[in-house]
Amino acid sequence: MASTQQKSQTIQPNDFDAVVIGAGFSGLYMLHRLREAGFSTRVYEAAPDVGGIWFANRYPGARCDSESIIYNYMFSEELYQEWTWSSRYPEQKEILSYLQYVADKFELRRDIQFNTRIMAAHYDEQTNRWKLQTEDGTRITAKYFITGVGNLSSSNIPKFTGLDSFEGAWYHTGHWPHEKVEFKGKRVGVIGTGSSGIQSIPVIAEEADHLFVFQRTPGYSTPAKNHPYDPEFIRQTKANYSEIKRQTRESTAGYLHKLMNDRSALEDDPDVRQREYQKTWDRGGFGFGRTYNDLLLNPSSNETAAEFIRSKISETVRDPKVAELLKPTYYYAAKRPVLDTNYYETYNRENVTLVDVKSAPIAEITPRGLKTTEAEYELDIIVFATGYDGMTGPLFKIDIRGRDGISLKEKWAGGPETRTYLGLTNAGFPNMFMITGPESPSALSNLPVSIEQHVEWIGDCLEYLREHGIETIEAKAEAEEAWSKHCREVAESTLFTKTDSWYNGANIEGKPRGFLIYVGGVGHYRKICDEVAAKGYEGFTLLSLSSRETIS
Ligand code: NAP
User: Do β-strands 381-384 and 399-401 pair in parallel, antiparallel, or remain unpaired?
Assistant: First the structure.
């Protein structure tokens, strides 16, 4: 009720200190941080409520692979003490409830305009303000323009011939209806075996009459080992709030997993290695990837982890031909690894068929189902678990233009040459900030940790600009060139760049390739950003309000 009342008070003049796009984890905290600092701030959100991807990404079995106790905000100890997660990995519904709780607690909805898609954001060099336009033509102006659009909000539906003719129902996992989809008595086809496919397949299989899984590339999946939280564990976690906050902020990827063995996988004899992998496998979670220190650096070490998982697939899946098809051959974890509950076991069910669409690709969708180059499958429902145009896709949905009318899309057209400064800002786009933008740790980290770091850095920056009478802040071209080069060099030293994945744009036809995530470590990255600020925003041009002179 309180929320509805807040929504009705939102009509205000359309000029703000700051405009933020998106009311997910990023936009909600950005709004709170800026409002607390006295900046007039408005969030625009295309959906009818808060939640960001967790509002729409509600396919059966949707859960986060980050453990609940760290998949939340840490900026408010009071909030951390108040909220209690029910199980080791948070379910979509519970994450959405959490974000709704946050919105209510901090009374955020009164400064969020829902059901409003921002189509364009152009920088006006005469007034040094951003001019934005909504889908219905409403114009908005703001001094600062901040994107909180997420890394995976632009869904990829491959352009299959005939989809329009399909007589059944079809859904993309990232835009799932709010009403329950009935699978009972239905022949269902799931296309895609990434995180969304691997999570949804076991759940859909339990209900559907028959499930066909159309797999092009198998994923590496290890057990999640989800379980309800024990009250004593929750008590200890809450008591350790400060330590958990410190550890995640200083960590490699925003998690609490400790490196199990600070040595190469190749230093251990095969039987010792087997035992070490078994230990992390049994614990469940992403800790498996931290069994040794060089799994993402050394191809031979990586192969030992990959082979361990392949052996588990053989042990689990009864039909040896199906087991072979499920075994990935690329570098383990160079493409996003997945955590599952009963994924491989699902292929022992009589109502599940694995279809290899690598050897016989999908040729077309027909009125009655789906045709590969070898056979036709009759289907009532098709589920596209086909992923996203990651990192740049959500930003490109908005026509963002900086100085001289240059668009972000034009600036980044080079792909691998994509340039940002710190993954936060772009030369030519003054007073614009990207929360978890390309070339920041973003999608290869536990996102709430990275989001909080960006929000706090941006908040501190805007306060600094106000205190020092600075009108514009803009990344220097040479600073962003150096940052992008550093990003590429760090990525090149790993196996991430040696495997096709959405991380480097390989999943989208025609998308320029480029590895757009900073993999130098969340803690290390934070130090770099803090040093930049401590040196008076090194690498930026700051233009003063009164004299219009360059300050640094
Ligand atoms: P994804 O990892 O990109 O997987 C997409 C799948 O669709 C792949 O198996 C891909 O095969 C297949 N595919 C795409 N186009 C196809 C075509 N034309 N024909 C046949 N198959 C096709 O997407 P996702 O599973 O939605 O996951 C995306 C990211 O979202 C994850 O990596 C993760 O970061 C995040 N996510 C996280 C969770 C979680 O925390 N539990 C859950 C869901 C998503 P190829 O590999 O051959 O391209």
Answer: unpaired
